[in-house]
Amino acid sequence: MNSMENHKLTGEEYFRNMLNGPGDTFGSFSEKIDLMFRFIDAVCEGIKPEAFRTSLFKDLASDKRDLQLAAWFLKIIDSEPLTGRVIYRIRDIIETSMSKFTGEELALKAGTFELHIFYNVMDNNYTAPVGEFTKYCTKISGSRFRLVYQSIDDGSVLIDDDILRKIIREASVSFIKFLMEIIERDVALEIFENFESSFQSLAKKAQNIKIETEMGPIDLQSFPPCIKHYISDIRNGINLPHMGRFAMVSFLNKVGMKQEDIMAIFGTVPDFSARITEYQVRHIMGLISGIKYTPPKCETLRSNHLCYMGDDILCADERVKHPLTYYTIKKKRMPKKA
User: Is the full-model pTM beyond 0.85?
Assistant: First the structure.
């Protein structure tokens, strides 16, 4: 059993003890439970990002057990759109909270995520193993995060405060996602059985994370293969070409997806910084320039090797010359929900 798997066992044993026995070394455990429910509910409600950085949620991820708790909650609720939103918001909170730490304190924070960071007091910098640097910095855009531009000494990369904070941020995302993969939902339901009604309420809210637009409610199942492929690539940490990102964001905007939910797709396995991503998304959505962009035609996507029609019958239909046409036709064919 590797060290990461121990987190699952430790979390399970810890939460069982906290729920079934006396004693509390995690602040007030009942308050943590209540705060996590309120946090996820606020995410469901689409509260603005600024509120999470300045309100009672700003210290939510101050303890790694907060992240464990979030993973167990998300496993129980079992909603992919909500999971993306929550992880993106926690990632944002962590990046903001790390700004108040420097030097040895910041290195110690990194250690809570099993990052092997050494702080050099004399030079006021840090060293990170090459493997850890590349693992997390490949998910961040910008040449300053590429290994080829770093100073390397005896198998370690010299880094500054800003790079380390972003590595911690990405490590927190990986930590939550890993826990969600190995946590058994049946076990999670058993541990938190006394909160069943609260989880059911959140799960019901999560089902409504969609928006009515001129094209009607968003139907993820009706997305064309290309858009599904782009979303899958981003979530798997694959570097999507600029046109692919443009096509995806403009498509999602046209079908009525909120900026928050589009950002959550990038935030699950981020390919670049939140600040740059938000600017690009807002630009494509027309929130900066006032111009709402339309996705490229199928012909343009094919000429740029960004078509993934495969053996999809509807893609081969001569009427379908645009991703939005595919979506409109497919959505009409989908059975109506009762």
Answer: no
